[in-house]
Amino acid sequence: MSIAKKIEESIAKSSWIRRMFEDGIRLKEQYGSENVFDFTLGNPFPEPPEKLHVLIQKEIIDNKPGMHGYMPNAGYVETRQALAAHLSDVYGVPLTSSHIVMTCGAGGALNVILKTLLDPQDEVIAPVPFFVEYQAYTENHGGVFKSVASESHFALNLPALEQAITPKTKAVLINSPNNPSGKVYERETIDALATLLKARSTAYGRPIYLISDEPYRDIVYDGTEVPSILAAYPDSLVATSFSKTLSIPGERIGYIAASPGLADGTIALEGLVLSNRILGYVNAPALMQRIIPALLGVTVDIDIYKRKRDLLCDGLAAIGYEFTKPMGAFYLFPESPLEDEVAFVRALQAKNILTVPGRGFGAPGFFRIAYCVADETIMNAMPGFEEVFKKAKAGRL
Ligand code: PLP
Questions:
Q1: What's the 61 CA to ligand 1 centre distance in angstroms?
Q2: Is ligand 1 within 6 A of the CB of residue 255?
Q3: Does ligand 1 lie within 6 Å of residue 241's CB atom?
Q4: Which of 204, 231, 366, 385 can bridge 92 by disulfide, Cβ–Cβ 3.0-4.6 Å?
């Protein structure tokens, strides 16, 4: 079989996360899973809320005629109406069902948005560190992915972003709370970004869109606020899902919330719905759409993740690791004590501790620890984290 060169190259480069995950499977077979500390995947830890199971069972028992049939490509009207009412409060803008498109997860939402916006060679800019799939998603739709460096502690570097914007820039893509850093952009940052994008949009005579990827919006700690981009900037779109907040990534249910202020609003919304269809998603999973209205505002217990964050941060800080404490999501992105973080990650792996090198996220010199794991995994990995850290500092790696 002769497959596309692009895919052949991508397989060869293969995502670091997948590579480490697959190494982990081998190690678990060899040493037993209790002796392997796998921090590679962002698979949510707690099981979904009990209410989800009750609602699914009810739907199955009720067995309403037509419940498995096609529907409008944007999703059930009742689901979108319920979401619009809920999100109008969350985002502080008046949303109607027409601003909501139900999607196959946040990944589906991003692909639908990029398919709708991008002409060939249009640029999408994202700050470092970024979610590993952004480049592939952009290239899926003929776009060119550009990343810009951030300031220390992962703060948005607005001058660098401004410099990166060109007449080909179609969108800026942010992710807050961030995977892999746990950074949440403050309100002043979002307002300053909006001011910058408005000025550049006016200068070019066409909008530069702001896309916010927000599957971790409800997983925040210590009272952190996640500001609304829909309230800050008219040409904005939120891509998100229930994958992380309800622990259901396998169910592939998410949505796009489009700003009521979008330029060419109606045509843009029609474009999103058409893209959902012609990308082959057709519509988001029906069963999940039927139960979501009863789950709005419900999340898994966020304190579980806070406890894990604190356990990990306290343990690593005591050893001497340097990092910015995450404000949200369930990842820690420490600095590697070795300049070559791949070598450091390999040394951790030799102690059966699996993490992911930062270069996959555009940030060499860092590595990612996904702490959506059992508390014991965090505690039992500490001696290994300490041994490898000390060896690295002593120049013995
Ligand atoms: N965006 C970010 C930042 C993520 O971390 C993930 C999944 O880990 C996704 C998007 C994809 O989410 P979903 O499973 O809802 O498609």
A1: 31
A2: no
A3: yes
A4: 231
Establish whether residue 178 lines the binding site of ligand 1, counting it when its CB lies within 6 angstroms of any ligand atom. Answer: no
Q: How many helices (H) and strands (E) does the chain have?
A: 14, 12
Q: At what angle do helices 265-278 and 105-117 cross, to 10 degrees?
A: 120
Q: Which amino acid is at 287?
A: L
| 315 vs 255: CA distance, rounded Å | 37
Angstrom distance (rounded) from CA 146 to CA 101: 27
pLDDT at position 9 is 80
The CA distance from 385 to 332, in Å, is 14
What is the reported pLDDT for 302?
A: 97
Cβ 105 under 6 angstroms from ligand 1 = yes
Ligand 1 centroid to residue 177 C-alpha, Å: 11
Name the DSSP letter for residue 335. B
Instruction: Kindly state the tokens that stand for 196.
Output: 């910058």
Is the pLDDT at 15 greater than 70? The verdict is: no
Beta carbon of 362 within 6 Å of any ligand 1 atom: no
Portion of the chain with pLDDT greater than 70, in percent? 99
Q: Is the pTM of this model over 0.70?
A: yes
352 alpha carbon to ligand 1 midpoint, in Å?
26
Backbone angles phi, psi at 297, to 5 degrees: 90, -10
The residue with tokens 């102690």 is: 351
Closest atom of ligand 1 to CA, residue 213: 1
247 CB within 6 A, ligand 1: no
DSSP 3-state of 323: coil
Distance 131 CA to ligand 1 centre (A): 8
**Over the stretch 279-321, which tens digit does the pLDDT of each residue have?**
999 999 999 999 999 999 999 999 999 999 999 999 999 999 9
| Cis, bond preceding 129 (omega within 30 deg of 0) | yes
Distance 243 CA to ligand 1 centre (A): 8
How far, in Å, CA of 356 to CA of 225, rounded?
Answer: 28
Q: What backbone torsions phi and psi does residue 229 show, to the nearest 5 degrees?
A: -75, -25
Burial 122-153 (b: 16+ CB within 10 A, else e): bbbbbbbbbbbbbbebbbbbebbbbbbebeee
